[in-house]
Amino acid sequence: MTERIYLDNSATTPVDAAVLEAMLPALGGVFGNASSVHLFGQEARAVVEEARRAVADLIGADTREVVFTSGGTESNNWALWGTLWGRGRPGDHVVTTRIEHPAVLATCAAMENRGVEVTRVPVDASGRVDPGAVAAAVRERTILVSVMHANNETGIIQPVAEIAEIARKRGVPLHTDAVQSVGKIPVDVKALGVDLLSLSAHKIHGPKGVGALWIRRGTPIAPFLTGGAQERKRRAGTENVPAIAGFGAAARLAAGRLPEMGGRVSALRDRFEQGALGRIPGGRVNGRGPRLPSITNLSFERLEGEAAVIALDLEGVAASTGSACSSGSLEPSHVLRGMGLRPEVVQSSLRFSLGRQNTEGEIDRALDILGKVVERLRTLSRSPRR
Which of 15, 114, 131, 370 is deepest in the core (most CB within 10 A)? Predict the structure, then answer.
């Protein structure tokens, strides 16, 4: 088999060599507890604060508003539960959308079991939420609105700044899951106008198991983890210094590579998309409009998506049918269903997500393989059963 082609960067990205290099000292000589007052501890503290500055700079934030977590899922959970614990009570209300990541939707379902009302606003056929629909959903007892910045399956960018203005006028904090958008497009918390923002290192060539929640100063939110004074008493637990160091390095690299994402990687995405639709009959793009430069979601008539993912993997191409957190589930994509797509379109969908490490040669080889896989699977589906 020729060298494998990785087109599932929305699930995770390979750790950059510079990130690994930044982590190594914290795995060796800089081993102190960042909460300790002696030299060993202060060396670790310096690493944490340097990383915090890099993450804050990536999103245009104040370092004092960035709190490290174990990843995007914890950040999303904390934004929702922390808001409830900090300002709400049973009977209160949360607004979100039907196409959020499972880390938000499953948390909202758990909150409903605790007496919280949840409104899930629909999206249009392009996968975009209408700010007016969000405004109509807000009630007197709404304590939080949570709308993702960019969708992890289609890449569609949501009108978060418009929604933030609506929420601000109603006195309701807005959380956005920006795990997919940070490092792919410019993200500035002040320009967005949000109050809480989730991000994760492993989506930007950093290590897994570390992320952050940005909390606008003055936003009422209770700690998610208790037991220590770490992170300004907002998130207890000894800091994962090596992972945080890697996050900081990845953030610095991502900030410098934004032009490449919007230029070269976007062009590769378009090359793949146009090539697939040009050579494979019955194809379509799921999700039109402003979107991330790295994601294309395609459906092909008379194709079973899961079978195609397996066949592509056997040929050396890594892709997916949607969110990595839903892998293994037999349920069709809630995102595509939320866009009103027909069941057969949803079942035939494939997500290809590109990264800065991908090349034109890989894209062209992946197109050749995809064409052969779709043709073979369509032939098999037409074959008479014995």
Answer: 370
The helix/strand/coil state of 39 is helix
CA distance 25 to 47: 10
Q: How far apart are CA 63 and CA 228, in angstroms?
A: 20
Detail the DSSP E strand segments found in 335-386.
349-353
Measure the CA–CA gap between 221 and 205, rounded to whole angstroms: 29
Q: Could you tell me the pLDDT band of residue 91, with boundaries at 50, 70 and 90?
A: confident
Strands 5-6, 295-300: parallel, antiparallel or unpaired by DSSP?
Answer: unpaired
pLDDT at 44 over 90: yes
Residues identified as active-site: 325
Phi and psi at 63, nearest 5°, equal -60, -30
**Structural domains present in the chain:** 5-12+258-382 (3.90.1150.10), 17-253 (3.40.640.10)
Cα dihedral across residues 336, 330, 145, 185: positive or negative: negative
Cβ contact 348:304 at 8 Å: yes
- Using pLDDT thresholds of 50, 70 and 90, give the confidence band for residue 331: confident
Q: Is the dihedral of CA 213, 219, 222, 223 positive or negative?
A: positive
Residue 30 DSSP symbol:
-
Q: Are 194 and 65 in contact (CB under 8 A)?
A: no
Please give the helix or strand (H or E) that residue 97 lies within, else none: strand 93-97
In sequence order, which residues have a C-beta less than 8 Å from that of residue 246 and are 6 or more positions away?
A: 15, 19, 20, 22, 23, 201, 206, 207, 210
Largest Cα separation within the chain, whole Å, is 75
HEC letters along 252-305: HHHHHHHHHHHHHHHHHHHHHHHHHHHHCCCEEECCCCCECCCEEEEEECCCCH
CB atoms within 10 A of CB 37: 9
